[in-house]
Amino acid sequence: MATLTTAPAPRVSETRDAGGAHLRRKKRLFWPFAAPALALYLAFLVLPTLATVVLSFTAWAGAGDTPQPNGVTNYTRMWASDSFQYAFRNTLVYVFLGGVGTFALAFLFTMVLRDMRGGKVVRAILFFPNIVAPVALGMFLGFVFKYQPGKQGLANFVLEHAGADAAKFLAPANVTGVVTASLIWASSGFYITILMAAVDRIPPYLYEDAELGGASPWQKFRNITLPMTWDVVGVAGVLWTINALKIFELVFVLAGPGTYAPPNQAWTLGIYVFDRTFGSNGTPDFGAACACAVAMIALVSVLVVLLRRVMRRDALQF
Amino acid sequence: MTLSSSETRVRKVPRKPRPAPGSRRLNPLRLLGSSIVWLFTAGNVLVLYWLVTAAFKTPVEIFTKPFALPYQWFHLGKPFRNFAYAWTNAGFGDAVLTTVVLVGLATVATVAVSAPCAYALTRLGVRGSGPLTNVVAIGMGVPFQTVIIPLFVVLSRIHLDNEYGLFVLYVALSIPFTVFLLTGFFRSLPDELEEAAALDGASPVRTFFSVMLPLARGGLITALTLNAIGLWNETLLAIVFLKDQAHFTLSRALFTFYGAASYQSEYGGLIAGVAIVVLPMLVLYLVLARRIISGLTLGAGK
User: Fold this and answer.
1) Hey, is A281 helix, strand or coil?
2) Could you say which residues from 150 to 179 on chain B have a Cβ atom under 8 Å away from some Cβ of chain A?
3) Where is region (Disordered) located (chain B) (predicted)?
4) Alpha helices in chain B (DSSP H)
């Protein structure tokens, strides 16, 4: 590039002087336009992230105390603690199990919704949980799964009226499964919406052709829908990973008694950070919280890079 | 429509080809699929029905007749008892005002800062703006938990751990998503209009404000809506940075009320509180559903 541009450069600027001047004036606009947003981004996201990384190598009880460097102690101690192991495992469960469930559901819906009457209305209704505050969603689901003889929640109400026994859905042993199912229900609408928008862009003659050949819905999905929407599926996968990893309010409220943290077995990494920073049980430990925050960043980076590698395919032009 | 008229007997070329015989065949997978879709949809409608009716019920009715229409409060002649409780006793009245002002200003400020940035990154032809856009987009993947400790320490030291600090945070942390969304919109605009404006002697600044910004109006509305929904529902930062109950946001007030309401069995008020948080967003969504969906698609599907 460099060798090519050096020789003819003067002539170009000579002949297109007016255009060049305009281009220069345009370029002068770049920093005044971009600087405010970039400065805020730098000050409130980039620098604090770096500060968190630095602080994760210090012992710091919280505001009022001063951070003392202590190497990787926070990390080793965190890794050995029960609460972090629960949090780490649950977060992975939500990302993977929740992801498989959500995408399986979303794919099933793309097969059915494409040529279903009232599909647009159905899509709008399915999207609905995504506009609800996670706190409110957690409370609603808390009502659904409440176990209290005589005052059963919706799920147990239905179970008891069907002649079955009420179940302790939110007992520590079951809570991860219940949250995973709730997560799949609440988020599938978002991914259905994104995937369906991609499906709508596929030329209809491909489906017509497949129909003439008598292809089943599964064959159409396998041979048309999936390859044609692969890019969007990849982006949706990245979005899922990012969103599932930072899940906090939904679990905090659904599995917890209220403004206190839920039992350790229900924790996510987000709850771990929150509890170590502003914790209701025990004293704050900013060092440990920062270490867990760094673990979150590391996990999201690793998962996104892996996902992009797995999803890499030659782009289809259509 | 009637078959007797002679016109209909003349054979016309059908506008649309008939569906192929195979496509209308009932097959088990299709049946299973559409029944799951309908069950799911019905479930969501039921949730909404439950939420709205429960907000008018007594706690006993909520638990013993979850699917019935509200009776007791209507019978006593004070159907809005739960809403009144949430509004006054749980501080939702103050919170509505705080939330509307805070979310409104933060949303407008976010778009006002992000739109020029997105324009600069896409249309000024400056080298390195592609990678820079990616750097900003990476910010979408940073969990807020990661930045909360340094921000909390610094903001509380300069006494900004209140709604003013929260405003700045909301704007700053919404920037990656908004810039990313708007670069998609600006990139899709035609070059010709910009060139025409330049030929007519409009300065680049004027071109931006009187040509490009109005053209990107759809994108700006989408960005405003998505940010408004996101910030309206935001809880984590509000829990951390708001200390004064008089200036709680709605989701923060709901979070605080949850613990107390469970103790006092004030479930009616609690569900009314949930309804106060959810229903305005539902209305916004119903009005702007198409824009929201097109914005999501643009953000996600390139």
Assistant:
1) coil
2) 150-153, 156, 168-169, 171-173, 175-176, 179
3) 1-22
4) 6-9, 28-54, 59-64, 72-76, 81-88, 92-123, 129-138, 144-157, 163-187, 191-199, 204-207, 213-215, 217-233, 236-241, 250-264, 267-300
A27 CB neighbours in chain B (<8 A) are 124-126
ipTM of the complex in this document: 0.87
CA distance A173 to chain B (A): 22
Contact of B183 with B130, CB cutoff 8 Å: no
- CA-nearest residue to B132 within chain A is A38
Encode burial over A268-301: b for 16+ CB neighbours within 10 A, e otherwise. Answer: bbbbbbbbbbbbeeeebbbbbbbbbbbbbbebbe
Tokens of A265: 């077995």
A235 contacts on B by Cβ (under 8 Å): 300-302
pLDDT digits (tens, 9 = 90+) for A290-307: 999 999 999 999 999 999
Residue labelled with tokens 């008020």: B269
What are the DSSP calls for B20-42, one per residue?
PGGGGS--HHHHHHHHHHHHHHH
Q: Which of A238, A231, A232, A225 is nearest to A193 (CA)?
A: A232
pLDDT-based confidence at residue A117 (cuts at 50, 70, 90): confident
CATH 1.10.3720.10: which residues of chain B?
Answer: 91-301
Is B271 in Cβ contact with A134 (below 8 Å)?
no
What is the DSSP code string of B100-157?
HHHHHHHHHHHHHHHHHHHHHHHHS--TTHHHHHHHHHHGGGS-HHHHHHHHHHHHHH
Chain B residues 224-253 within an 8 A CB cutoff of chain A:
229, 232-233, 235-236, 239-240, 250-251
Place of tokens 């990302």: A95
Sign of torsion over alpha carbons B210, B214, B219, B220 = positive
CATH homologous superfamily of domain B91-301? MetI-like (1.10.3720.10)
- B8–chain A nearest CA distance, Å: 28
Q: Using CB atoms, which residue from A48, A135, A198 is nearest to B301?
A: A198
User: Which residues of B fall within a CB distance of 8 Å from A300?
Assistant: 141, 143
- A contacts of B169 (beta carbons < 8 Å): 44
CA distance between the termini of chain A: 31
DSSP state, residue A312: -
From A87, A97, A243, select the one nearest A184 (Cα to Cα): A97
Closest A-chain CA to B18: A208
As a whole number of angstroms, the distance between CA B195 and CA A26 comes to 12
What's the pTM?
0.88
Closest CA to B53 of B39, B35, B65: B65
Q: Nearest-CA distance from B4 to chain A in Å?
A: 31
Chain A residues with beta carbon closer than 8 angstroms to that of B172: 40-41, 43-45
Question: What's the pLDDT tens digit per position in A53-105?
Answer: 999 999 988 767 788 899 999 999 999 999 999 999 999 999 999 999 999 99
Q: At residue B108, does pLDDT exceed 70?
A: yes
Structure tokens belonging to residue B20: 């192929």
